[in-house]
Amino acid sequence: MSESNCDHDIDLEKLVRGQYEAENRPSENEVGGRVPDFGYNVLNREGLLYEPIVDREHLSSGGEKPNWPNDADFAVCLTHDVDEVSLYSARQEVRNTVSKIRHRRSTGQAMKDLIKGGMRTIRKTRKRQDPIHCYERWLEAEEKVDAKSTFFFMPEQTNKPHETDSDYRFSDTVIFDGEQYTVAEMIREIDARGWEIGLHPTWNTYDDVEELKFQKGQLEDVVGHKIVSVRQHYLHYDVTKTPRVHAKAGFKYDSTLGFNDNIGFRFGTSYPWNIYDLENNEKLQILEIPLIIQDGAMLRSNRGLRLNEELAYDYMLRLIENVREVGGVLTLLWHPSYIHKEPWWRLFSKTLNYLSEQDIWIGSLQDIGSKWSNKTPLRNIP
Ligand SMILES: [Zn+2]
What we know:
CATH class of the largest domain: Alpha Beta
Oligomer: single chain
Strand content: 5-15%
Bound molecules: zinc ion
Number of domains: 2
Low-confidence stretches: 377-382
Mean pLDDT: 91
């Protein structure tokens, strides 16, 4: 691929294959057991995080813009990671505390966790109306603009526990559409209404096919059909291992490759691509639909960009324009567990309204993925 007309030294083929990431990302142990984020990305160091440089190069070297239905300018993929189902569940708080204590090495710290967990449980049982028990609001907002998203749910069991695992069970109860449902019933209802259910697997699945299959099977038992889409919890993903694990577990679409603390194009592209297996030097049959913007990266107050609502909207408009210019896919993630935070919900509604006035094609991960695979000729990148 030609590097002409570019004012950077990035090898785009190497970028999309994940080789820069494999070379530059430190191990979790080197960054305190956390997921390394945008600071280690080669594009950030070059000041190119918000630029879809791969897509621009594709177009400037004679490649065609992707074809979207109705000749839309670009596509929007809407997603939600369901990390928690309730804010005020005492049962979930007890499970959460037990899990934390199990992962503590010191007895002193375990005691502190136990006391804190006990206090939280007492506070939570006093509350009545759970402010995130209004999942129907996401469906209603999306239905108004003729959109259906992907909801990524976590499994309820794991053989390889980690302190970030979910604390909900499929038998827990929630209020949905004004009525009491179990989580399993709500998942089936969302599925039956035509939204997509994807898997949000736990931290320790990123390198373990059997564990990932085990978790996928749990959600498939709930919905009664195959699950094809995945996004790793905490975006915990190793580019040298996870693509192969996803493919072997039978997924077709992944949308993990974005950032927790920033927004932008982690691999320099808004176009879906067949992810590369670096060990076996081959393209896999799993399509990566990269995550471009998530709510928490912009709006959390203690990490990430820490933007206010207005500035977050300005950042988003800039990325929307960049995706429009290349006719790519703008993948958005909004967490249902933050619906009680008004600026977060307002930003979602405002963005959805703005997008609905543009010439877009909007859908779930599966919608976008199947359209891309069937109708758009795959680029010669990588
Ligand atoms: Zn998550």
